[in-house]
Amino acid sequence: MAEPELLLDSNIRLWVVLPIVFITFLVGVIRHYVSILLQSDKKLTLEQVSDSQVLIRSRILRENGKYIPKQSFLMRKFYFNNQEDGFFKNTKRKVVPPSPMTDPSMLTDMMKGNVTNVLPMILIGGWINWTFSGFVTTKVPFPLTLRFKPMLQQGIELLSLDASWVSSASWYFLNVFGLRSMYSLILGQDNGADQSRIMQEQMSGAAMAMPADTNKAFKAEWEALELTDHQWALENIEEELMSRELDLDGMFSKELPTGIF
Amino acid sequence: MANVISFKNEMRDKLRKWREDNHRNSEQIVDVGEELINEHASKLGDDIWIIYEQVMIAALDCSRDDLAWTCLQELKRQFPGSQRVKRLAGMRLEALEKYEDASKQYDSILQDDPTNTAARKRKISILKAQGKSAEAIRELNEYLEQFVGDQEAWHELSELYINEHDYGKAAFCLEELMMTNPHNHLYCEQYAEVKYTQGGLENLELSRKYFAQALKLNNRNMRALFGLYMSASHIAASPKVNATVKKANVKYATWATNQINRAYQVSYARCLL
C-alpha cells in the first residue's frame, strides 16, 4: 500500500529551505575570511626544510634512477641505505610530539580552530532548530529506518511519520557538508570553510606531530629504496634511436618551437 | 589616447612574458621598463612593484645605477623591512663591487631567517665574482647539503667543477639534474660531453649512450648528433675493443654521418628558399 505522500506548503520552500542554504553558505564564507585573519605564521626550521628536500630527492632517485648509470644509482642508494652510515639509517630527529598541554602554540591553534569552526556550527544549528521548528522541511530521497527518527525529526512528535521526512536542523547539517564543493569553486582549494577537512584534521589530532613523522618517513623511504632495482633506460638506446631516421622538421628555421623540455 | 593605453599594456605584457620565461635581455627590459615607470607609473596599479624589481635587476646588469637606485628607493618605501628588498639592496652593492657590505647585508637577512635560500646563493655568487672558485665550491657544497633539491645550485656547481676540470664531480651534479628533469635533452647532452672529456673506454661508451638519449629526446640537437658520431668513431678507433664492439660502433658512426648529411641538405635547401 503506497503511503500517503505529504504535500508541503510551498512557503516552506521559500522561507525555510532557501534561507537555510544562504545562511550556511554565508557563514562558511565568513569563516573562511576569519580563519585567514587569525592565521598564525608557520615558521619552518632549517631542519624541516632540509629533511623534506632529502625525502624528495630519495623519491626522485627511486622513480628516475633508471636514467643515470648503474654505478651512480648504486652509489646514491648506498649513501642512503648503508647499514653503518647510511643517511636514513643514521639520522634520527628529535621526536617531541607537541601535545596541547606542553606546546602553547599548538594550544592556541586548536582553540582558534574550535572557535572558528565548531562553535558557529553548534550555535547556528541550535538557532535554526529553535527558529524553524515544528514542521517538516524536506524529504531525503532514500528510505530510512525508524531509528533515525529522533535524530532527524527533532521537534516533530508524529509516530507514524516516515523517517525520510526531516526537520530543518538536519537540512542545515546536510548543507554544511554539501556546500563544501561550492566553497572550493568560489574560494579556491584549501579554504578555511571546509568543515569536513578540518574535522578530519582534528581527529587525526595532536598525535600527528611533524617530527615523529620525519622518522617514520625516513624509515618508509629506506624500505622503498631497498626494494628499488636499477633498470637502465638507456640499455638499448642506440637501437631504438637508429631504428628510424631523425625527424629534422623545422630545423634551422628562425622560430624553433620550444616544446623541447 | 587609446594608442598610449594599448602601448602601455603591450609593454606590460612583454615585461611579464620576459619575467615568466626568465629572459635575461637586460637592455630591452631597461628600455621598456624605464619608459613604463617614468610615464605610466600611476596607471600600473600593484603591478608596479614587481616591475620595479625586474627593472632594477636589469639596470644592475646594464650598470645603470641611477635607475637601480630609484627603483630600490620606491621599493624600500613601500615594503620597509622586507627581506626581498634587502636582497635587492645587497645585489646593488655587489654591482658596485662593494662585496664586504653586500656580504654583511646578506648575513643580516640570514640572521632573521636562516632558511632564506636567496641570500645564501648571493653570498656564493660574491665568492664566484671575486674569483675565489675553491671557496665558492666549498660553500656551494655546504649549501647543497642542506637544500638538496635546488636545481639551479646543482647546475652552478657542475659549471664550477667543469671550470676546475674536476669532471667526476661535475658528472655527479649533472646526474642529479638528469634525475629531476629526465626529459631535458640539454642535461643529457652536457653529461655526455663531460663523460667524453673524461675519456677512457667506459666513459666513452656512456657518453655515446647519453648523446643518443639526448637525440632521442630532441631529434634536432645537432651537438648531440656530432657528439654521437665522435664518441662512436673514437671507440671504433680504439685498439682495445674487440671486433663486435668495433663493428657496432662503426655502424653507429655511419648512421650519425648519414643524419648529419641529411641535416646539411635541409639547411642548404632552406638557404635556397
From TrEMBL, chain A:
Primary subcellular site in the record, as a coarse category: endoplasmic reticulum
Membrane-spanning segments: 12-34, 115-136
Record-linked Pfam families: EMC3_TMCO1 (PF01956)
Record keywords: Endoplasmic reticulum, Membrane, Transmembrane, Transmembrane helix
GO terms classed as biological process: protein folding in endoplasmic reticulum
Record's subcellular location: Endoplasmic reticulum membrane
SMART domains: DUF106
This protein's record includes keyword Phosphoprotein: no
Membrane topology: Multi-pass membrane protein
Family note: Belongs to the EMC3 family.
Subunit field text: Component of the ER membrane protein complex (EMC).
PANTHER family hit by this protein: ER MEMBRANE PROTEIN COMPLEX SUBUNIT 3
Record's protein name: ER membrane protein complex subunit 3
Species this chain originates from: Salmo salar
TrEMBL record, chain B:
Keyword ATP-binding found: no
Membrane topology value: Peripheral membrane protein
InterPro entries registered for this protein in UniProt: EMC2-like (IPR039856), TPR-like_helical_dom_sf (IPR011990), TPR_EMC2 (IPR055217), TPR_rpt (IPR019734)
Repeat is among the record's keywords: yes
EMC2 TPR-like domain segment(s): 86-195
Localization per Swiss-Prot or TrEMBL: Endoplasmic reticulum membrane
Segments annotated as TPR repeats: 151-184
Quaternary structure, from the entry: Component of the ER membrane protein complex (EMC).
PANTHER family: TETRATRICOPEPTIDE REPEAT PROTEIN (PTHR12760)
Similarity annotation: Belongs to the EMC2 family.
Role of this protein: Part of the endoplasmic reticulum membrane protein complex (EMC) that enables the energy-independent insertion into endoplasmic reticulum membranes of newly synthesized membrane proteins.
Name used for this protein in its record: ER membrane protein complex subunit 2
Organism: Oncorhynchus tshawytscha (Chinook salmon)
Gene: EMC2
